[in-house]
Fold these 4 entries.
Entry 1:
Amino acid sequence: MVGLVLVAHSAVLLDGLRAMIAQTAPAVPVGLAGGTGSGTLGTSAPRVLAALHETLAIAPSGAVVLVDLGSAMLAVEIALEEATEDERARTRISAGPIVEGAILAAVEAAAGATIDDVVVAADSAALRPKLPGLA
Amino acid sequence: MSGEWVRTWLRMSAAVVADQAEWLTGLDAAIGDGDHGINLDRGFRRVLATVDDPSAASLGAADLLTAAGRTIMGSVGGASGALYGRALLRAGAAISLRAETGISGPAGPEVVAVGPPGLLPVTAALDAAVDAIATLGRAQRGDKTMLDALVPSVEVLHESAAHGVTLAQALAAAAAAAADGLEATRPLVARRGRASYLGERSAGHLDPGAASAALLIRALADTVPVE
């Protein structure tokens, strides 16, 4: 199964997001890198790397990374440079919004989709879940 | 670049950042998320602990910069932690490469003025740091970032090699260029980082990243070893 690695400035935000994912796709491995090592808002490359290690160890088909704001992406880039060749090859980064993207990606992953299909699901999440409500 | 200079610079930087943390946070509160000074202060306190640990007593310039980079990256959070952390790591690597390959002059084949003793290593380290920040942040001068202070200061270092100045004079000129670069961020519209979400409203404020960068370059100038 494909797993998810979620990177955001707030650990509380990610705890909430993981609870939402668990409602619909409890079997999907989800690694969290929320906040800094000091317990403050922010992102941290070492925490991203740790979440990648953990998730890839239990997600044989790879991991899709979703990020929130600015520095989250920088932290992911640094973490990937420090990851092993194998870990890099099994990781994809999604441009999707972290909340909607993670939910759609988890549903797709739980259904046994390939990593490429999980990325497509995460990327497509920007407006799709909200359109019916807006129509 | 001597280990002693790097050690003294890191200590001075920690002191200056602690002293100016409130100012930096205030600048960040105006156009960002209001944590730059607090975050950087926390990071440099850890750097201070790392540098002053007995196990670091024998470390040279490259290893000190690397240790500081890892500490900053792991403790500061936000873009500034990733960017300064990466910059210090790359500066350390540049110093280490020069030591390993025995390069004492410029790395490139071009004929350039060598300048006063000690200028080339510090210039190479800052070149590597600026390149790391520009690459990771996908930013350039004029985007209202730390590069607006750093790029002009490094340019001054390059130019000073041909001007027959002392190392202390070259670094003082670089610090002045960084301060000018900081002031020049005031009218700019931010194109990177959280401030860019404000668009035109980011104009009229100093950039907090350029402010901390100018402080760090000033600390470098203030700790130049006496020849």
Entry 2:
Amino acid sequence: MEALARGNPKNNRRVFTVSELTKELKSLLELKFPFIWVEGEISNSKSSANGHLYFSLKDEGAVLKAVMFRSFRPNLPFKLEDGLHVLCFGRLSLYEPRGEYQLIVQQVEPIGYGAFRLALEQLQKKLAAEGLLDEARKRPLPFWPRVIGLITSLHGAAIHDFLRVGFFRNPKARVLIYPVRVQGEEAPQEIIEAIHVLSSFSEVEVLVIARGGGSFEDLLPFNHEGLARAIATSPVPVVSAVGHEIDVTICDLVADARAPTPTAAAEMVFPSLNELAYELGLKLRALNRTLREKLLREEQKLNQLKRRLKDPRQKIKESQEKVHLLKRRLDVSFLRRLEDKQNKLFSLIKQLESLSPLAVLARGYSIVRKSSGQVIKEAQEVLPGEELDILLHQGKLRVKVKEVFCE
Amino acid sequence: MRYEEALKRLEAIVHELEENDLPLEEALKRYEEGVKLVRHCEKLLNEAQKKIEVLLKDAEGHLVRQEYPFTEE
């Protein structure tokens, strides 16, 4: 074992310390693989407290450790999830304290439809959480925009379809086109600029982003976060007319209106002049009809009032008749009451008569009075020789008292 | 007045006239206004001018408005 002694030059052995070897390996790795693309499936992904992302890339035969430092994370178009098939760009490095080599990732691109879907879902979730996809914040499209801002490629069917259908509906429309690339890496930035430029014209009252159908790769620009934000903050409503067979794009979800094709978008933003003229005709007819009906109703009202309105002479006559009638009733009742009174008076007179002393005289009695008129009721009231008057039923006697008998 | 505003006002007038509680004089005024609105809308339908322009960048990168030739064929 002596021979194996550390750093024994006699045996012609080149012995490294761990650090030396690791350092050699590190520079070898970094020289041999300065910047590389690696394809693989993500596993064991986790985010560290200081914001770095750690994960492994694997395939059927091997595993490669990878890290994405915090400063590169903004480059990430989606959240890394296990099982995702990706293409990573970066450099190989060796972390000496641990003796581990790893890929220092600077950029990650999803591979295939699954990754595309995932990126889409993640961005959708993020924007939804911010409320950018809320139906409530979608604006109605203008009824008849002064100028329609069109963002599309000058080459291809989309622009032709849109203008053909649009000008068929409204042959007098005004359109301002901002030509952009609708695919490739430059597309999102160009579309964002188009939104800013077109919406700065006060006459442009609606924007239409149009492209014909395409594969999901063709539609990648329309799932761009910056574009989504530009659409959301556009001062005028935006119509997304990105024709495609597969799912909607983020552009569709953020836009104020979504059209399945450029043709459908044209139908949304160009009012049909023929239809407008037809509807206006209907409105004019309704206006005339309602006035006619109004006049008819007024006439009926007038007739009704006329019937209720009377000649004042007729009214006077009616009043007079009423007075006559009352007077007659008054007369009749007055006469009746007069008669009643008379009858009562007569019966009272009769009663009175029966009580009158004159009536007693008629039955043969007489009244004796002194010359002073005093009625004599007892013999002692008179003296012999006194003159008295005797009242008879018929006539009167003057007599002289001969003798007085007081019982 | 914009076409859709005029149309909305026109609808309101027709509705008002259908209601019976408008004095006749008011109703006639509304009708007159309605007819004016119809004329205005017709004017808008007839007066609009077709125009297609395209924004292109010149040599210095400035945006320039140009007529865009479009034929329906």
Entry 3:
Amino acid sequence: MATTGNTATAGAAVEPAAFDSEAYQRRLSGRRHRRYIPIAAGMLMVVLMLVFAVLAPLISPFSPSAQFSDYVLEGPGGRHLLGTDEFGRDVLSRVIWGARVSLQVGLGAVVVGFLVGVPLGILAGYKGGGTEATIMRCTDMLLAFPTLLLALIIVTALGGSLINEIIAIGVALTPSFVRLARSMALTIKENDYIMAARALGGSPLRLMVRHIFPNAVSTLVVIATLYIANAIRTEAGLSFLGLGVPPPTPSWGNILSEGRQFIKCCPWLTTFSGLSIMLAVLSFNIMGDALRDLLDPRLRGD
Amino acid sequence: MLSYMVRRLLIAIPMLLGAMSIVFFAMRILPGDPCLAMMGDEATTEALEDCVRHLGLDRPLLVQYADYMWKSLHFDFGRSIVFQYTVSSYILGMFPHTLLLVLASSLVALCVGLPTGIFSALHRQNPLVDYSSRLIALLGLSMPVFWFGILLLIVFSLHLDLFPLIGGGDLTTVFDMIAEGEVFEYPEDFLAAVWDVLHHLALPALALGLTLAATVSRMARSAMLEVISADYIRTARSKGLHERFVIYKHALRNMMIPLLTIIGLFVAIALTGTVLTETVFTRPGLGKMLVDAIGARDYPLAQGAITVFTMMIILVNLLVDILYAVFDPRIAYK
């Protein structure tokens, strides 16, 4: 900023310098705009997916559970754009409805993880001592389980349904949120404004809610975007293993898993559901990555 | 150093016990009776009572808990309900398949991920390299291993007919031949058996390895970036050393430490990856066993498999922590 300012003032006095300054400005803003391309691309895909999921009853050409017995295992094209499955159900409609499950679980699980993990993390980081030790030991214990394994254990215990999947993946994501929130609270609490707030007689609760949390929230939300990608992938994995939403409710994972028997004759079943999973995870990853780089380049590369 | 190792071990033990407790209580908060779930609604009252007694579910929860913890530490997980073997013998039979898959896919991931990660860190000024490497890494991160596996199966097994569709090869023959010293007697049979195992291993290892390569590549990239901005690299450069010398002699060697953390993190990811990979390729192993056990509601088997998974992950983390201190002695004194 300071450099640009200097060039501009120098440019007012000397003619050619002013020209350079403009070119420099243009180049700079061009570079700055280029950084928004991935965010825009990721966001566009995310919004598109949200629209598909919300408007599923309106835009899907058929009901996802309607069975057209004359069109069993029909290839893509024609009446059924993406083909049909072994019960003659329209794959396109099922993929569109599957977006609902993926997004509900993806967003829901991250909200659960956020709501449980962030308060615990801030509490641990702010209080320190025994509170911190207790919370962090429990977190470490849960972190010993990779997300999918922990979610698998919980879903096995609770049984497969949409809510249980959200709870399972949410709990599995919680330790990561605790860790992140704690490390942010540790840095933030060293700031002078925290000391000032405390000197003014702010209670610990007030400090945590009104001062630490608002300063951490933007980073937390950005990282949460990346966890949505993780949650969607985990959901697809659980559904694929037959532990997700029970059929006939379509989810990308169970369409893929059902299509596995037919990879020889009808590869479209696995192709379109797999592609949807990948695109969904990819768009949240791209958006989260770009937002994170924009917010704080130092966070890059986990 | 010794005190550091002891300290790490002392942290690992409560972690292991805690994680095992989580497994136990997760399996116990099951809605409904596991026996009822296993035997179905038609089961007679006597059969149900028999099952409850057989699983020891009639005892107080705390007694069951203590029993589970004590027996698990001896690798005694009871008997499988479906197969009637002891769970530990079943796990022992499956373990080599999973270990082989983890090792092979790690090898693939490291061979692909490390060079690309380092390359993209060194050439990050070139926007083409920077963008394409990041995009490929993102694609790899977003690719679900089970879909990638299916794509590989469609192309290489169904259409090109190069690899088998299912199975894990006859690993027991290989082990038996080694154990009984038949390796030198019938070298051709032995090589054929090994080849068969590798033939079955190729696609699963490729599927899991390539999806993991993205993670490795990203981690290697950031590790390299960290090393390359260190003071000793600037010193080496300002001495006038050739750039190649700086990278190979100074940067790469110092990257080994962050690399270890990568491998530690990564084995945990690879182990979970085996659950999905083995299911896609219908390959025997711990992961497939776990999924099948859950599907068949074979609780002793599922509980045993999860416990073994947890043990392995904690063990690997412990090992990495210790190796970390061996390579970088400063860690031990912190």
Entry 4:
Amino acid sequence: MSGATEQGAESFERAIERDQRIEPRDWMPDAYRGTMVRQIAQHAHSEIIGMQPEGAWITRAPSLRRKAILLAKVQDEAGHGLYLYSAAETLGADRADLTDKLISGRQKYSSIFNYPTLTFADVGVIGWLVDGAAICNQVPLCRTSYGPYARAMIRICKEESFHQRQGYELLMTMMRGTPEQREMVQDAVDRWWWPSLMMFGPPDAESANTAQSMAWKIKRHTNDELRQRFVDMTVPQAEALGVRLPDPELRWNPERGHHDFGEVDWAEFRRVVGGGGPCNAERIAVRRAAHEEGAWVREAAAAYAAKQAARRDAEQGREGEAA
Amino acid sequence: MIAGDWPLWEVFVRGKRGLNHVHAGSVRAADAEMALRNARDLYTRRNEGVSIWVVEAARITASSPEEKDPFFAPSGDKIYRHPTFYDIPDDVPHI
């Protein structure tokens, strides 16, 4: 270790210990940088792919009000993806390269977005459960040790609160409707409940990265802690809504002060993460098509910028001669 | 400049009149005009700004974290620049 590296390592450890943030130009271990890039990129990809399941309902939203809300929400997901790509770039990652890794399947995104949205009730349930689970995961990330990531998460969390509330309000409206509408809501809850619990990742005993991420204060809570917190938060919301969560083992445990709940189907989780979910191929194909079909726009913008710059240079040259 | 290789622009947003512009993040754009529009769409979707600056990231000169201590050392030992350095009796008003 050179003197400068040794000094860098020391100030890195000290910053982590004192709960200070690591900033882009600080020295950091290669493994920390690698973990951070991987996590932020995966998070950014999830936001970008996450536009698709709900985006599918924009043209079929039942009212202008719902359409405007859904458009704003999907636009937010794009924004969240871009905040995060911006944070990843501070670590030396290149945005175009990250997009390439996503559409060639070399980097992952959250497995939740590989499930289809079959009815409009799914839009509400995604807001309530999927964004609710995301909030549980993301609130502690506002204090994560890497500064640009923590700052992006603060913006994202503020906006996610709108996402969750619009979803819950949508479901309350449907629950006040016809028996068929109430059935649609229950059916959507039945399909999304377990995948939502999978969003917290594998159980602690099988989570390879948790210990190091906790030591670096990237993560503040384990997967199982956050999953438990989500279940405890959601049960009273389900009661208020009048829906049943599809888990016969779900019940309050007064001794633990938490709800007990059944075992997640981890074989399904691994299958979906591994590419075998109902929509994996479609999600990547749509993202790839959008990227390829947008190539002429990127080329035109670059050509226009080059022409304007050349014209400006020529004008400045003439002014120089006149003087 | 090849397509997809747009430069990186740092974005600074003035939240409201009377406040400084504050760094918000970055965008990719082919030119300054596009960077401004992208920054507006990305960082002010909820009235977070009344004014935006964009500057090409490559044009920024920054102090280096490695030289942090020597670079800022000159101000470290000049405690007489702070008002608390001076003892004034408690019964002297308005000072």
